[in-house]
Amino acid sequence: MKTHTATTGTVLPAHLRGISRVVVDETVQSSPLAARVRKRLSHLDWSVKPEGPLEDTGETVLYLKNYKGRFLKPCPGTSEYRCCGYRIVHIGENCPLSCSYCILQAYFQDRVLKVWANQDSLFKELETAFSKVPGKRFRVGTGEFTDSLVLEPLTGFSRDLVAFLGGFENVCLELKSKVVDLSWMDAVRRPDRVLPAWSMNAPTVQNQEEGGSATLEERLRAAQTCAQAGFRVCLHFDPMIHFPGWQKEYARTATMIFDHLRPEQIAYVSMGSFRCMPDLKRVIKENHPQARYIYNEFISGLDGKMRLLRSLRVEQFSFLARALQQGGLDRQLYLCMESDTVWTQALGYTPKKLGGLARHLERQGFGE
Amino acid sequence: MHGSEKNLLLLEPQAIDCSGPWLFWGGEPDRAFLESLGREGQIEPVLVVRQDGRNLLVAGSRRVMGLARLNLPVRAVLADPTGPAQLGIAYLLSNWGRAVDDGMRVRALRFFCAIDVEPEGYDRVLTLLGVEPRSRQARFLGEWLTLPKDWDQLLEVENIPLAAASYLCCMGSEERDAVFPFFKGVKWSRGNALHFLTWLTEIGKRDQVPVDAVVDNLALKTHLVPELSPKDTIFRLLKGVRKSRFSQLSRLEDNFQHASRQVLAQTGWTVLQPDNFETERVEFRLTVSHRDGLEEAVKKLERFVESGGADPLFKDQST
Fold it and tell me: What would the pLDDT profile of A187-208 be if each residue is shown by its tens digit?
């Protein structure tokens, strides 16, 4: 009989209990990461296969893969809107949470949770990149194609990564998540180079649309723990959702933030409105029929993505920005993938005034 | 179901039973066909089976009707008796190559669904109807077959596109009944029909009310009046539904249109907002046929801008 208790004796978080089996590429079956997962999920079936595609059986499979692609990638921004210049450290793909708005539903057709088990290759590539130009700084993160911490109880990937990056003072790593896992903290050598980050939203959105995630209260308590340990944290209101009563709800979240954190403990806060490639709307309709926000007033943006009508976006950004500014935040606020027009209307200035968004966030990230 | 020389018959038209439900697409013979029959005679025999002492027509109803009118006997091939599915397939095979529309496809498929044809047989029927079994069109047909038969006549007269089935099949009977009148007397283009149904459905989901309530709330049936042309009816229906589905955008468009009308009236320039107010851009267009016309239009526009007439185009576009 399968249990929800890992061999280590700890109970698996609810979002990991749906994993039905583990598959590993034979070339990485002896890797430290694979050994760790095997120990922690010894109650599940374990199979080794030659490298190559994994057949989709509809199950939630954890697949430890020998990844052959690039590990360090630019964030896929578009030229029509201001990109934050973040770089992705690619550690795996997919997520066991079921956020209704998640773009990964459209990116990946299956439920396979892929983790790149050839960490030695990843570290080698990162070392080359980060050592190449002396003095060049990198603001990187792992939360683009997966949640940075959602598989941490099984893989310990972030713990390995922060330990590795401890040797690179020119690198600032952001760990972006919707769950609470702080097991990586004691491996950090320089807390000023690691930015724990949590997604924020209206309480109703968290409750109804972010299946399996930690509550806002839990996330903010974790952020508080990090801040007390000397880390500066990041918060991301992305995607903001337009729904009846949104003002009261986002104001509530802003209040909660300042109940847990002081402004100087926050490196930056992003705001982004829900946007997606048109096909995601169909996927959301099928997978999350309760999601009503997809029937908001969306138009086709300059990048071909569906975006909320500009006037509605500006209204939401302005409102939240005011609430966060009242709590003491100022230049920590930025907009994710927005035009200068929206920046001006919502915040009163453009990224140019900040010296460019990527450079501004780099300075914020490195604590200058 | 094979015919051979020994199975060739010569029958009086009245001796052939043309009431088989597998004769999906039978119709009255037109004058050209009758003239051809009279001049050339019957070139191809019809297909019949003999069951319970009757000659049941399998394919060739127009020929039988035409020959009856000309008081001529019918040459027929007698096939072996068989079940209804095979009779239907024989009819489709004998009509192979004929131009088939979605209304005709639905009529044929209703027959095969009523006799519970096997899935493989259903796929074969789709193929004979010119439809790839795993295609979007096959999906739409499958969805259409879940609708009440009343809708078939609207499809046959092309008032509504087959793709509308995706929306209609998700509605309850009261919701469908509420939208039926909008398609009954008006021929909709595919794009307009799908927009209409999409917006109605999405308003309902957004506001958590059934589609029939949306129809009532927007008083859409008031646009179904004989005084309006079909084109005007569709225009008003779409405008009413879109205004509810995209209320803020519609308001911005109305304001902009009002301002742009002033520009056109006073300068001759057409003004457009090119990107659903995602930017504050405004596009000015002018058509002239000679240089003087251009100079005059530019001067008019200059005077108009200097007087502040263009300000409303740029003011509060997004709010």
Answer: 999 999 999 999 999 999 999 9
